[in-house]
Amino acid sequence: SPNVRSIDNLVESASCLRVLDLSKTALGALPKSIGNLLHLRYLNLDETQVRDIPSSIGFLINLETLSLQNCQRLQRLPWTVRALLQLRCLSLTGTSLSHVPKGVGDLKNLNYLAGLIIGHDNGGPEGCDLNDLQTLSELRHLHIENLDRATSGASALANKPFLKDLHLCEQAPLIEEQQSEQEQENQDDQKETEEEEKEVLDVTNSQFSREESIKASEKIWNELTPPQNIEKLVIKKYRGGKFPNW
């Protein structure tokens, strides 16, 4: 299987590479030397085992396609991707990324953007928001994930005259582990009463939280108005009680 040293050797011996397709290999990491392939225009790492992308990728100033689809172990994308100003295609679907770094809006030549994660898993400020999309007027295909984590950018889909394919997906709802109640004998009346009150309170809080989540979801979606030139629309994991006004 390919390793860091073998890729290092490849970079050294073929520094004029324009296309590098390592998809569906057992590649586990990219060497820092990948940034030396200054002529590279196409880099495909789909379905590999890479966990991290070196920051030196920002030196690939001629790169037009970066595909990381189904890299299930990929957990981090360096902020230097914002330096790839010639990038036309960025595919991130099927990864384990916690967030996409802010600055995607600098990639104004993008026409294909898939797997854009909104926000950050831990609520941190590093992740993209919908505002990052406002300058991407060349987009033809856009796939947004975790839309419910958006905090701003209601007009993010405005000025998208070429957008034809739009996928909108919310974050999967948290699965609450249900523990089966075990009946206990010889409980006094006081304990039984406390347990009953706690159950009622838990149900009430759960219903309130669910209602608030639905309202927040509906608000985001109502503010997000896709352009009329859309030809394909995919909506997944929408938690709202009714579809958006548009």
From TrEMBL:
<dbReference type="Pfam" id="PF23598">
    <property type="entry name" value="LRR_14"/>
</dbReference>
<keyword id="KW-0677">Repeat</keyword>
<dbReference type="InterPro" id="IPR056789">
    <property type="entry name" value="LRR_R13L1-DRL21"/>
</dbReference>
<feature type="domain" description="Disease resistance R13L4/SHOC-2-like LRR">
    <location>
        <begin position="12"/>
        <end position="158"/>
    </location>
</feature>
<dbReference type="Pfam" id="PF25019">
    <property type="entry name" value="LRR_R13L1-DRL21"/>
</dbReference>
<dbReference type="InterPro" id="IPR032675">
    <property type="entry name" value="LRR_dom_sf"/>
</dbReference>
<feature type="compositionally biased region" description="Acidic residues">
    <location>
        <begin position="178"/>
        <end position="199"/>
    </location>
</feature>
<feature type="region of interest" description="Disordered">
    <location>
        <begin position="177"/>
        <end position="212"/>
    </location>
</feature>
<dbReference type="InterPro" id="IPR055414">
    <property type="entry name" value="LRR_R13L4/SHOC2-like"/>
</dbReference>
<protein>
    <submittedName>
        <fullName>Os02g25900-like protein</fullName>
    </submittedName>
</protein>
<feature type="domain" description="R13L1/DRL21-like LRR repeat region">
    <location>
        <begin position="185"/>
        <end position="246"/>
    </location>
</feature>
